[in-house]
Each structure stands twice: as structure tokens, then as C-alpha cells.
Design brief:
The protein has 128 residues and is α+β, with helices and mostly antiparallel strands. The protein has one domain: Nuclear Transport Factor 2, Chain: A (Roll), CATH 3.10.450. It contains four helices and seven strands; from the N terminus they run βαααββαββββ. The chain has a seven-stranded mixed beta sheet with strand order 1-4-5-6-7-2-3. The longest helix has 13 residues. The protein is globular and about 45 Å long.
């Protein structure tokens, strides 16, 4: 499958980075309505523990999570088709009293449905 590393569409890159970043914010993570709009019904995630997560399981889990602040760096966009995008980045989770700090490599597949992008797939790999 041919893919294009898209450096010529900064608006799409900026928009998807904003959407991805929003999923790391406490107010978004706790808001089932906002998550429902951002995450596709056929979404799944390969979690760092090896668990496969679906949309509704993720929304339920985030409602009760012990939140820790996160940041994104090294964000990259690869358009796989005009309406499908792969984003990759480094994630940093800050330490809390309940969890240690952790860095990870992250990837998400986003699909443009109508006028809105939705996340179809996500995977995180913890860095040593």
C-alpha cells in the first residue's frame, strides 16, 4: 500500500494534533459525549498491557480513571488516503501519587467521516 508522508497539509496535521491532544485532557477524558464524538463506533485499541479495548469499554474506563497530566511531542502525520490518516508521536505521562511517570510511543488511525475526523485505532508502547 502506497502512503504519503504529508508535510504539505499543515492544517490537517494541526487539526489532528489538536484532536489527539484533546484526548489527553482531563475534561475530555471524563466527558462521555465528547469521547463518543471523537472515537468511532468500530474503534479498538491495543493497550500496553496487551488488552484489546473497544469504544464503550474505553469510555467507561476513562470515567473512573485516576487522571495524570500528559504531553505530546514529535507528532507526525501520514495520510494513507484522502480520508484516512496515521498519526504517530511520543507521549509523556507525568507522575501522580497513584502512577509513576511514563514515556511511550503512540500511533492512531483517524478516519474522516462526513465533516469530522474520528479515531479508529490506537496503540501505545511504553518506553523503558
Amino acid at each position: 500500500m502506497e502512503h504519503i508522508h504529508d508535510q504539505s497539509d499543515p492544517a490537517t496535521q494541526q487539526h489532528l494534533q489538536q484532536l489527539e491532544t484533546s484526548l489527553h485532557l482531563q475534561d475530555v477524558r471524563a466527558d462521555a459525549t465528547r469521547l463518543d464524538a471523537l472515537i468511532a463506533d468500530d474503534f479498538y485499541e491495543f493497550g500496553v498491557s496487551g488488552t484489546v479495548w473497544t469504544k464503550h469499554v474505553v469510555i467507561d474506563a476513562l470515567r473512573d480513571e485516576s487522571y495524570s497530566r500528559r504531553e505530546i511531542s514529535d507528532f507526525k502525520l501520514t495520510l494513507l488516503a484522502a480520508d484516512v490518516a496515521l498519526v504517530t508521536y511520543r507521549g509523556h505521562r507525568f507522575a501522580t501519587e497513584h502512577r509513576p511517570a511514563a514515556d511511550s510511543l503512540r500511533s492512531s488511525v483517524w478516519k474522516l467521516r462526513g465533516a469530522h475526523w474520528q479515531m479508529l485505532f490506537h496503540q501505545g508502547t511504553v518506553l523503558p
